[in-house]
Structure formats: C-alpha cells, structure tokens
Amino acid sequence: MIRLYDYWRSSAAYRVRIALNLKGLAYESVPVNLLAAEHTAEDNLARNPQGLVPTLEIDGATLTQSVAIIDYLDATRPDPALLPSDPLGRARALAGALAVTSDIHPIANLRVLKRLETQFGADQPAKEDWYRHWVRTGFDALETIAKAAEGPFLGGPAPGLADICLVPQMYNARRFEMQVDAWPTLVAVDAACTTLPAFAAAHPDRCKP
Amino acid sequence: MIRLYDYWRSSAAYRVRIALNLKGLAYESVPVNLLAAEHTAEDNLARNPQGLVPTLEIDGATLTQSVAIIDYLDATRPDPALLPSDPLGRARALAGALAVTSDIHPIANLRVLKRLETQFGADQPAKEDWYRHWVRTGFDALETIAKAAEGPFLGGPAPGLADICLVPQMYNARRFEMQVDAWPTLVAVDAACTTLPAFAAAHPDRCKP
C-alpha cells in the first residue's frame, strides 16, 4: 500500500501525484489541509519533521521532499524512467527541476507569503507582486533552458522530472493570473504534458477533496 | 581541467568546493563577484541561465545547480561516495540536503534579502529577522532529522551530501550571529565536518580572493 500525505493545491504534492501516475502506481491520498494548519499538527510533524507536504509511505518507509521521493520511485520502479541514466543527462534534468523546486517555489509558497504579511504587513497586491517577481525570474531562465531542450518535453521525447516540476508551477502562475505567453516554450511543454492522462489525473481540480 | 565559477561567500559554491575536495579533484576557481553583480553579466548568464553561482565546467560540459553538480560528481567519480547506493538511504540523504538547499537557503539568500529591501523597505534588522526565522524553522526540523541519524555525520560514518549542505548554512547562520547552541546535534555534525581537511580548505576564509 502506497500512501501519499497530500494537499490538492500544494505544488510539491502535485509533483509526486504526477510521478506516481506516470509510474502507474495506485496510492491512497490522505489530505493534510494547509489552510487549516494541519501540516503543523503533531501527527504530520511525526511523519514529516519539516511540517510540510508531501510525505510518501512506501515499501515500509516514510519519505519526504518531492524530488527525493521521485528519485526513489525512479530507482525502485524504473519503468518509465523519469531521469536519464547517463550522468550528464541526469545532471541537466536535475538542474532543470531544481530551478523550479529550489529557486522558485520555496520563495513564493504559502508560508513565505504569510510571513510577508506578518512581518511586513504585506497586503494581497504586495504578496502577488512578490510571487510574480520570483516566478518571472525563474521562468525567464527556464525558458532559455527549455529552448535548448530537444522537446516536446523538457525531458526530451518523454516527460521527466523537470516536466513534473514545471507543470505545477505553471498551474500556480496561472492561478496568480500571470500572463504566461512571455514563455512560449514553457507553455508548449506544459500543453504537451497536460494532455497526458498521468498529468491530467494529478491536477488539483481532480484532487480537491 | 575542472573550472568552478565561484564566489567565496556563496553557500551553494561552498558546497561544490567541499565535494570537489572530498573527491580529491583539483580545480580552477574563477571568482564571480555577487556584490559587484557579476553574476548578472552576460558571460555568467551564458554559462548559467539563472544568473547564479556555482557553475562547473567538467568533462566538456557546463553544469549548474549545486545538488545536481554533486550528484554528477558522485556518479562519475564514485570514490568516496557522497550518497548511499541503496535507494532508501539515497532518498533520506537527498531529503536532508534539500531541507537546506530548497527550504532554507533560497528563502534567505542575498537576492531575497535585497528584494525585501526594494519591495518592503526592509532595513538591516528586519532582513536579519527574516533570515533568522527561516534558518530557525529549517534547523529545528533538521535537528530532529540529525538526532535520528547514526552519526557522527548526517551521512553516517562518513560525510555525505547532507553534511556538505549543512556546513555552509551553519557558517552562514553564525555570520548572522545566530545562537546555534539550540541545535546541539547540528553543531556536533558541523564540528565533525570542519576538522576534515576537505571541509577546511573549502571554507570562505580560505577562498577569499
């Protein structure tokens, strides 16, 4: 039994849902409501010391951090591969993924926007401005990276880790009403991904409790 | 010839310096002065579309993102190993590393502190308060993770990727005058690391141009 501690709108949880679907792995989704602060409750902290989602229970182990989880799934369930097996291809895929998961999402997620409010009294427009600044900075770089990729996916002919990380961030950017046309290659990659059933089934609208 | 585009005080570059030293790899360090905005200059953007450091030139390739670079070094120069070869150990090591590289450092680095200043008029004490909040949040979780590790390193009997990520963050926290005694296990891990020549030689004070 694979169990995902999940929140429908969490980008990091969305990544793991896509990966599980691409691997064809059935799982039970257990909602952890971030808006109700369930992530900071004792039971979530016991399984995820950072008080975050996602957490994955699999093979008798409890795993945290979406990129580490997806790397584990790829090592233990290699088909279809989500990361290239050659070290150079792997390094490039990982770098593309980390450009989203380290350098966009953690600076612009719910807990950071909340802190802007409590520490600096940021109102909704100021928080949106902050959010859009970091997405813009990250997507500008990622568009350059994407243009150099073979396509139609960042991972080449099949979707991989970088695609899995891009799609939730793109969903998120649209939710913040960003004009994503500025990044045509990213929009094309996102469109290629979202037609696939594995991506479609992981979409927040399909995972809302 | 291995060439590292480096900045002596960058945590991410410091990680790669440690890894190169642990692997016994000689390299040329090319300084990219972040304070002089050299990272946003055209030549740096050409090698690193995100306009960040580090970038590593190795084996005819140009690699970005410290965690991806270290993973590449480990795949191509396996001795000594910086990540466990079993998928579960690997997932745990990667999760410990990402708890620093995704969930502390990117929220509290120079470009974010600068943005707090330009967008919210944050003064030095406000920026330090922001910095310390995210380090405290991350180190609280990491202390729990570290307590469960075998020791003396996060990686067990030998230093690994998570240790490589912890040490620069600990250096950074001390630079911001944080009382790190609140995390005794992390302080012990840091002390065990910093006695090793590979860590000592990568220290910013030793790499200042």
Automatic annotation (TrEMBL), chains A, B:
Its EC number is 5.2.1.2. Residues 86-209 form the GST C-terminal domain. Pfam families: GST_N_3 (PF13417). Belongs to the GST superfamily. Zeta family. Residues 1-81 form the GST N-terminal domain. NCBIfam families: maiA. GO terms for molecular function: glutathione transferase activity; maleylacetoacetate isomerase activity. InterPro entries: Glutathione-S-Trfase_C-like (IPR010987), Glutathione-S-Trfase_C_sf (IPR036282), Glutathione_S-Trfase (IPR040079), Glutathione_S-Trfase_N (IPR004045), GST_Zeta (IPR005955), GST_Zeta_C (IPR034330), GST_Zeta_N (IPR034333), Thioredoxin-like_sf (IPR036249). Signal peptide: none annotated. It comes from the Bacteria. Keywords: Isomerase. GO terms for cellular component: cytoplasm. GO terms for biological process: glutathione metabolic process; L-phenylalanine catabolic process. It is an enzyme of class 5 (isomerase). This is Maleylacetoacetate isomerase. It comes from Sphingomonas aliaeris.
